[in-house]
Amino acid sequence: MKAEANYQTEEVADVMASPVAIAEDDTTARLTRIWQELLGVEPIEADQNYFDLGGDSILAVQLFAHIQKVFQIKLPVATLFEAPTIEELARILRRETAPASGWSPLVAIQPSGSRPAFFCVHGAGGNVLIYRDLSRHLGSDQPFYGLQSQGLDRSCPPLSKIENMAALYVKEIQRVRPHGPYFLGGYCGGGTIAFDVAQQLQAQGEQIALLALFDTSNWSTIHPPSILDRSYYACQKFVFQAANFFSLDSDGRAKFFWEKVEGMQLARLGKGSRTAVSESRVLRQIRRANDRACWDYVPKPYSGVVTDFRPVKQYRMFNKPNAKWDRLARAEEVVVLPVYPAGMLVEPFVKHLAVALKKSIDGVICGCATS
Questions:
Q1: Residues 28 and 91: beta-carbon distance below 8 Å
Q2: Nearest to 348 by CA among 145, 134, 87
Q3: Which residues are CB-neighbours of 112 under 8 A, at least 6 positions away?
Q4: 114-118, 202-206, 274-278: which range is least confident on average?
Q5: β-strands 182-187, 302-310: how paired?
Q6: Which domain holds residue 109?
Q7: Distance from CA of residue 78 to its chain's centroid?
Q8: Which pTM value belongs to this model?
Q9: Are 105 and 149 in contact (CB under 8 A)?
Q10: pLDDT, tens digit (0-9, with 9 covering 90-100), for 206-236
Q11: Is the peptide bond before 338 cis (omega within 30 degrees of 0)?
Q12: Residue 333's pLDDT is what?
């Protein structure tokens, strides 16, 4: 089991002693100790993968907060895509002298492959680790890039308007792919940003091959939730999580349950760290900015096709006819997945999204080839 209930915050604090000049071997040794304490796995070899050891996006925030405290180097959480092992991360730490200088909103989650690149925009939380499993299920031949929120490196405040986020991401996308056709997507609020990215690229005369919105609503048609709405939402969230849980077999239920337990334990563990508290404050600020930007954004009609990936049921506050995309897009293709809200990107349900998304990409590729 990767997390134990008897974690002691004091033990981790001892490991995160005052930063000192350290030799190469000591870099690896300290990283190993940090990983073992936070992941609850021992021993850990220098070439073992963070994600294979059970690491996730929640724990990654704590991990990099502790790395910053020990090494006095600020690295983005998305560094885990480039360096998912202790050995690779140590190599980056040894050469890193100006950590903020190399930060970019564009993250190469899976840069290789012969298929057209898919660009996926962050959700409300701002980071793109949530897309790792989706990228993995799409396969090694599917290039997959994530776009993460400005402000995650704390060098500048988060952007407050969807249009400004989209303009920044268009520039980043065109660094990798100067011209279309483009394959775009995003989860929840990330779908809203992807919608405006598509608008801006079209305004430049570029072709949008696929605009994939994962559980994304037209937020401008939904009134900000009241206290009663929030209470009902919380009840529905519990019901939907239970529905996801009971849709699994016995092995899947056990894994799903322990991941939830471990996530709560790790969240409690981080509360004792001043650096982690500061990091959590930044993430809350980014989430609030992204949420507010979505509520304030009024989308314009889109002359392309929207592919709308929906869960089998939806929260009552979002389940409104005018919150769909058929009234704004030239056409809408609806794909209903056998999963309840909040489970679309989570194992093992993410495989359903991967299969459906791959089918949509294949359909566009075949259409382009025959046209």
A1: no
A2: 134
A3: 140, 143
A4: 274-278
A5: unpaired
A6: 104-248+299-370
A7: 9
A8: 0.81
A9: yes
A10: 999 999 999 999 998 888 788 888 899 899 9
A11: no
A12: 96
The whole-number pLDDT of residue 5 equals 36
CATH of the domain at 355: 3.40.50.1820
Q: Is the peptide bond before 76 cis (omega within 30 degrees of 0)?
A: no
Instruction: Identify the three-state secondary structure at position 290.
Output: helix
Q: Does 111 map to a domain? A: yes
> Sign of the C-alpha dihedral, residues 216, 217, 219, 222?
negative
> For the chain, what is the domain count?
1
Residue 205 lies in a domain: yes
- Asked whether residue 66 is domain-assigned, the answer is no
Task: Give dist(CA 289, CA 159) in Å, integer.
Answer: 7
Asked if residue 261 belongs to a domain, the reply is: no
Are the C-beta atoms of residues 136 and 52 closer than 8 Å to each other?
A: no
Summarised one tens digit per residue, pLDDT across range 59-108 is 887 888 888 888 888 888 888 888 889 999 998 888 764 344 467 899 99
Q: Note the pLDDT of residue 269.
A: 45
Task: Name the residue among 307, 326, 343 with its Cα closest to residue 218.
Answer: 326
How far is it, in rounded angstroms, from Cα 363 to Cα 340? 25
Report yes or no: 266 and 3 within 8 Å, Cβ to Cβ. yes
* C-alpha span between 272 and 8 (Å, rounded): 10
